[in-house]
Structure prediction request, 224 residues.
Amino acid sequence: MSELLFRDVVRNRHSVRSFLPDPVPADVLREVLQDAQLAPSNCNTQPWQVHIVSGEKRDALSKAILADDEAGRYKLDFSFDLADFDGVYRQRARDQGAAYYQAIGIAREAKEERQTATRLNLSFFGAPHVALLFMPEVGDNVRVAGDLGMYAQTFLLALTAHGLGGIPQTMLGMYADTIREVLDIDPSSKMPFGISFGYPDMNHAANTYRIGKAAIEESVTFHG
Ligand SMILES: Cc1cc2nc3c(=O)[nH]c(=O)nc-3n(C[C@H](O)[C@H](O)[C@H](O)COP(=O)(O)O)c2cc1C
Prediction:
């Protein structure tokens, strides 16, 4: 891959929150998975266990987690609470939420509309496929979770390179028990997040905005 093409792929990747219903051809999906498989991992352990869900199974899974949501049933394998984030991290999360809701035309005070928009996570934002990333529990899990992150970004960049798009979703992790049940996955496998993916609907407002990123100086300290 040329340097320019790499730059384009990295810059074109963004979180896609509206998809066309068209399924991804099996050969294209295999190429994406082959690319993602090249991700680095601690001691080459490659601890990712990836479940790709499509078609009727995808519909059944969405129905099951929407029913969980309706009943107020959820339990994460790994904790996630925005209130745990301080300072600039908290602010960036707020800015991201504000930018998204503004893009899709939902006002700050429109609580119900916001909840409806958030619930779109559970129908995979209309994507025909979802990749659910599971992992074995090892020690305090930090290393393995880091490896899953390596896999996930390689997968997302591979999607972009193939004209596809995806959205990583911690929110799917809230329904890990139901997902294991529907897909018959062993309880020892834990799920930090999933990635809905397919062809982006580029005419949808959700896909028209790009969230800003901090300047290099905010993240990087040069020594020597
Ligand atoms: C691990 C992970 C989990 C995420 N979970 C969600 C989610 O549950 N729902 C959602 O709409 N976006 C989710 N996002 C997307 C982020 O909001 C998005 O990556 C961030 O705002 C930066 O935007 P960009 O991906 O377009 O660069 C998640 C991203 C990551 C990396």
Notes: Residues 142-161 form the longest helix (20 residues). Helices lie at 3-12, 26-36, 55-71, 87-103, 111-119, 142-161, 176-183, 216-219.
